[in-house]
Amino acid sequence: MNSPSIGRNSGLDTLRALAIVLVFTNHYMIFVSGNPTFGWVSEIGWAGVDLFFALSGYLIGNQILGGIRQQQVGTARFSLARFYARRLLRTLPNFYVVLALYALWPTMRGTSSMPPLWQFLTFTQNISLTPGTAFSHAWSLCVEEQFYFLLPALALSIAMLRKSLVWAWVAVLAALVGGMVIRSVLWQGLESAEFGGSSYYTTIYYASWCRFDELVCGVAIALLKNYHAGAWARVTSYGNWTLAAGAALLTVTWNLLLEDHYGYAMTVYGYPLLGLSFSLLLVAALSSGSLLQRWRVPGAASLALWSYAIYLTHKQLCVLLRAPLQAQGWGPESWQTLIIMGMASVFAGCLLYLLVETPFMKLRDRYVPSNYRKEVSPSQSHQTATV
């Protein structure tokens, strides 16, 4: 069932819708208008990608850690092959369709050069990425796909070695500290004139080893939920306080990033601060009594459902629409252009979702309905758990 109103969390939908709106405003400023058309939101809109990372870290982490947890207590057998099959059927079809448009239709990429196709197919396009190349925003998908392949291996290794939960939390902390150390070293290797320039983006912003912070924070939420039931119950009982704390920390972090995004302090500590801010909002979204979960923002569920497709298509669509709209006398900051480009982005995302993503989701639900190889009956589960 693909209805946005069934089996969905309103809080998570709101956060996902917020993420795509933020990304749209930032891309609009950079690639269409050249000005902060939406004010400070345009300037901080790049953080929408980081919100997507936090959401993905939690959702994927919850699947993997929840699956391992069920396997440990004998209620199901988690299948890594099924997990990867479901994940790839979710992400690859849309990606391949849009990639084909860039590769086969020169108008789609305009004057931008196209990186080698193998880099997209191997999800390594973000490594040493030159800003301004065609389909450059696929860098975030590369980071996520690399993370999806690394996380299960690490989680299963800890579980198979029968290490305690302490090791899982050590891995989370090590990933965050490691990211800060790497960014610190790389930042100090840049010349001052390169801060904010293409070298900064290639060396730090797009690099996988610098951008796992929010993904790891999302996994930490999943770890807390699946392995610390008592703590999770206590934390989620204060959903509105968590929402207030997340909003306050996010406000402070955004202000600091707006003041000095490329400086040493925010390069090193800004991304973990974003990860913590978004993690608090995630907890609020998962808390049954919070305003974030109870408040259904009109249109948020649909935007959330189409957000991946919108993300892939909106940037170049707006670039292609700019010239014909300008010929009509509608500049990039006119209300006519803003409405047309906004609606066109949503429509294109919806179309890609309906024509490509939905059929593959139906195939996935038919042939790979879950991440588990075999469901175990309650009686079998009891016998297994007591052996």
Helix fraction, binned, reads over 70%
Q: How far is it from the N-terminal to the C-terminal residue, by CA?
A: 39 Å
Structural Rg = 21 Å
The total of helices stands at: 17
- Spatial shape: globular
Mean pLDDT: 91
For the largest sheet, list the strands in their spatial order. Answer: 1-2
Structural class: mainly alpha
How is the secondary structure organized here?
Blueprint: H1 10-33, H2 40-44, H3 47-73, E1 76-78, H4 80-104, H5 106-109, H6 117-121, H7 139-160, H8 165-188, H9 198-205, H10 213-227, H11 229-236, H12 239-260, H13 264-285, H14 291-294, H15 300-327, H16 335-367, E2 372-375, H17 378-386
Antiparallel strand pairs: 1-2
Describe the structure in your own words.
By secondary structure, this protein is mainly alpha-helical. It has one domain (10-386). It is built from 17 helices and two strands. Strands 1-2 form a two-stranded antiparallel sheet. Helix 1 (10-33) runs antiparallel to helix 3 (47-73). The two termini are 39 Å apart.
Give a short synopsis of this structure:
This protein is mainly alpha-helical.
